[in-house]
Amino acid sequence: MKNILAYLEQHSDVILSDILALVEAESPSMNKAAVDRCGEVLQRLFAERLGIEAEMDVQEEYGNHLKFVLGSGNEKTVVLGHFDTVWDEGELPVRREDGRLYGPGVLDMKAGLVQAIWAARALQEHHLLAGKRIVFLCGSDEEVGSPSSSAWLSQHALGATQVLVAEPAVAGSGDLKVARKGTGQYQLSITGLAAHAGNNPEEGISAVQEMAHQVLFLHGLNAPERGTTVNVGIAHGGNRVNVVADKAVLGIDTRVTSEEEAERIHAEITGLQPRLPGIKLAISGEQSRPPMRQTTASQVLMQRAKSVAQQLGFEVEGRAVGGGSDGNFTAALGIPTLDGLGATGAGIHARHEHILIADIPARTALMAGLMRGDSDGTE
């Protein structure tokens, strides 16, 4: 792996420039035009660095999903990544400071996408891709639960010997992610009856009061001993301080470690009942990602990652984490899946989101070693 690492170190400035270009193409999930513009930048990088064109899965509501295929061998590796972000355009500035690159989606996960491109390029330049086929699946809606890409991802991942997920490493340690919680999102709409808060409040039915009851019940579903979390992250109600509120909305996030818990939480949320007479509830949503569990085959993949990292001069371990990714879908298909192979840094979904520039060559070489499919250390 030393030749691969040396090649990547020699091209580190170009790799960083590619990351910067992708980060500057801002791509909030629900802005299709912006996401598609970012997709065009991504297509240019694949064309310039690997000489391959995209197979596009056109979407009406979300950005178009992009598939790239390098090589034609029977041994198929799938690389997963997404190019949408949680940041609105202009919300987060791009800057380089103290060995870090800050910007919207730089860690989650545009740097990882560029590293995947350069990992493949390094293997290509060293003639190490014989008999191998690398399929890059780049989704445009991961940050909102992959509603339009989950089936597409699963379809094109079938037949893979391994799935490498270019999501960021565990913050602080650089460790890889071998298990993830399943995730769900729900919306609870509450309808009451408006009335004047001073003259005739008794004629109203407060949706905000009902909301308070429901928030307490929902948070009571948390079961830390089972790895289950339920969080009401959005709560809106009413529109005038002197009016009994007739409308309220809750946004609910769920995380589970087992299908049994997913079924329990789904039944509890979809079965919510009003606490106040006259209130009406409308519930939508689902458990969108299954839990990602470590299997015997994925343990073997993790051991290979540890071996490659040792050849490169650093150590990695496997960690279970609470967040979900598109790797949850491929793991559920029984394909050995290893996550957290992207950039190191901190601040996912936070205003200090950044990557550690110095780690880029070694982390890219790690991905190259896994793409190669062995760890004999001869290159």
TrEMBL record:
Pfam family, one: Peptidase_M20
Spans traversing the lipid bilayer: none
Keyword annotations: Cobalt, Hydrolase, Metal-binding
Domain Peptidase M20 dimerisation: start-end pairs: 178-270
Protein name: M20 family metallopeptidase
The organism of origin for this protein: Pantoea eucrina
